[in-house]
Design brief:
heterodimer, B: mainly alpha
């Protein structure tokens, strides 16, 4: 029970996010209108994706320093959950973009950056599947994971700031804090980020334990 | 010590290239036939291509050329030779030598490509030194990121497909910067306008070289 407190916290946070996020009052803003509630679902996906991919990279580094099957499995599962969050982020973002910017895909640098980031991690999965031997697969995909993450960082954080973007906070648009993230939104937004990220960690936890057990069964057969 | 190793390994690469020649000549033919195919398929006279189209086409040709040219940098070595290197030189020396060698190779190829391309499809570039600078940065950038990728891909089974799949997403940020910078040069904008792109490109190159330098020993061990 002592070790599981964060799982209970996750459930509570997500229930809070969905219930309060759907029911509470939100600021009335032109164009955004009620879609501003997507802030609780779209934006946390990106925070969650970056954090979870960071977990994946950290475990890849750990694997290179001290090769163990556990580190490799966690890195792999975290990359998969990161991809899941990325896809959900893109889908919710496209839905939002349809209502506010008028198109599902409007050639926004952040949208493109996100799509390329996903391509990198799909390539990671393809690379993994092309090795038969377990140790070689683990080491080489760890190398690619770190390399790709280093290339992804400038893509996600630097490029959009150099060009015009429709997202808030870029290319002369004021950031969230300037006008629309008032305290009632913050009250739900921060728990939402924490809740979704913890949910991702939980999924990684369960899946990597399952994978470890599966490996153990193979060894014993 | 490391410096000496890099020099020796580069010498060896140049010597091999000079003796065999087929690889380099093959790439030359690849570049020129691609440019010629573009010329024929657009079916137009010189200077009729719009500036953004000219620019994008040029970089796409260079991208595919470099993927093909650099893909072979680890695949052409046979197993025995790799084992021999493994026993006498450090992995850092190998990756630095390969990056430098590929940068030189790409620079020559890119310049030849530019001359031929401008000759066939017309040359709308206003600020030629700046455009050449973007070609230089592009050649170095492609060489740095693709060398590491080709090292990764050469370990896998279907390495030629994998090379393309792994390299495109990694190279896109660089490509976008390059296209923007060379577009500025083509329009003859003042040079301060491209400073942002130039610095970002240099920074990306630095990151990629550092990461390759740190990671290559792990790749090399297998």
């Amino acid at each position: 029970m002592k070790k599981n407190w964060w799982k209970i916290l996750t459930v509570l946070l997500l229930v809070f996010t969905v219930a309060v996020g759907m029911l509470s009052d939100v600021p009335r803003l032109a164009i955004l209108n009620e879609t501003i509630r997507n802030l609780y679902f779209h934006v946390p996906m990106w925070f969650g994706m970056i954090l979870i991919l960071l977990i994946s990279v950290v475990y890849s580094i750990k694997y290179l320093r001290k090769p163990s099957i556990k580190n490799d499995i966690i890195a792999h599962e975290a990359a998969k959950v990161g991809i899941l969050f990325g896809v959900l982020g893109i889908v919710t973002g496209m839905e939002w973009a349809k209502f506010t910017w008028g198109e599902y895909w409007s050639n926004d640098p952040k949208q493109n950056g996100a799509a390329i980031g996903l391509l990198i991690y799909f390539a990671y999965l393809v690379l993994r599947s092309s090795f038969a031997e377990q140790q070689q697969r683990a080491r080489i995909s760890a190398v690619y994971n770190i390399f790709a993450f280093a290339a992804l960082i400038p893509l996600l954080f630097i490029l959009p700031r150099l060009t015009d973007s429709l997202h808030p906070g870029n290319g002369g648009n004021p950031g969230f804090n300037a006008y629309d993230l008032d305290s009632s939104l913050r009250l739900v937004f921060y728990p939402a980020v924490l809740g979704w990220t913890l949910l991702g960690v939980w999924i990684i936890n369960v899946k990597s334990r399952l994978e470890l057990l599966r490996q153990r069964i193979y060894e014993n057969v | 010590m490391l410096f000496k190793e890099v020099i020796y390994l580069m010498q060896k690469d140049f010597l091999l290239e000079w003796r065999q020649k087929y690889a380099f000549n093959g790439m030359l033919l690849y570049v020129s036939s691609t440019v010629f195919v573009c010329y024929l398929s657009f079916g137009l006279r010189s200077n009729a291509l719009q500036v953004p189209v000219w620019n994008a086409l040029f970089w796409i040709i260079l991208l595919f050329t470099s993927v093909n040219a650099i893909a072979k940098s680890f695949m052409q070595e046979n197993r025995g030779r790799l084992l021999y290197f493994y026993s006498i030189v450090s992995p850092q020396g190998i990756i630095l030598a390969k990056i430098l060698y590929n940068a030189c190779l790409m620079l020559v190829l890119a310049l030849i490509c530019f001359v031929f391309y401008a000759f066939v499809l017309g040359n709308p570039v206003h600020d030629i030194p700046m455009f050449l600078l973007s070609i230089l940065l592009g050649a170095i950038g492609f060489a740095t990121s693709l060398t590491m990728i080709s090292g990764i891909a050469s370990k896998a089974a279907n390495s030629s497909t994998l090379m393309a799949v792994l390299s495109f997403p990694v190279i896109v940020p660089m490509l976008l910067m390059l296209i923007k910078m060379s577009k500025n040069a083509m329009d003859g904008l003042e040079r301060a306008a491209s400073l942002d792109e130039l610095l970002t490109l240099l920074a990306i190159n630095m990151i990629v070289v550092t990461v390759s330098y740190i990671l290559f020993p792990y790749l090399w061990r297998s």
